[in-house]
Amino acid sequence: MQATAYTYDPESRSGQVLLDDGTPVPFDAAAFDAGGLRLLRPGQRVRIETGAEGGTEGAGPRITLVTLQTF
């Protein structure tokens, strides 16, 4: 699935992406580390993979990997 980087905190290695419908979805350090990235800038197009739904009701998908979109 593709998304756009929205926020990123280099200290916690977590942030949010925007899905194509504009929905913000958070990612944690484990998802960022799984993608092998060192930095992420807002506006970059990324590829994400999702796992099971989040732990809280209505939380939506849980991102398990964030990496740069390649063609």
Average residue pLDDT? 90
Computed CA radius of gyration, to the nearest angstrom: 11 Å
Please identify the top-level CATH class.
Mainly Beta
Kindly report how far apart the N and C termini lie: 13 Å
| Biggest β-sheet strands, sense, barrel | 5 strands, antiparallel
Number of helices: 1
Number of strands: 5
Protein name: 2-phospho-L-lactate guanylyltransferase
Question: Can you lay out the helices and strands and say which pair or pack?
Answer:
Elements: E1 2-9, E2 14-18, E3 24-27, H1 29-34, E4 45-53, E5 61-68
Antiparallel strand pairs: 1-2, 1-4, 2-3, 4-5
Structural commentary:
This protein has 71 residues and is mainly beta. It has a single domain, classed as Beta Barrel (OB fold (Dihydrolipoamide Acetyltransferase, E2P)). Strand 1 and strand 2 form a beta hairpin. The longest helix has 6 residues.
Q: What labels describe this entry?
A:
OB fold (Dihydrolipoamide Acetyltransferase, E2P), five-stranded antiparallel sheet, mainly beta
Outline of the structure:
This is 2-phospho-L-lactate guanylyltransferase. With 71 residues, the chain is mainly beta. The chain has a single domain, classed as OB fold (Dihydrolipoamide Acetyltransferase, E2P) (Beta Barrel).
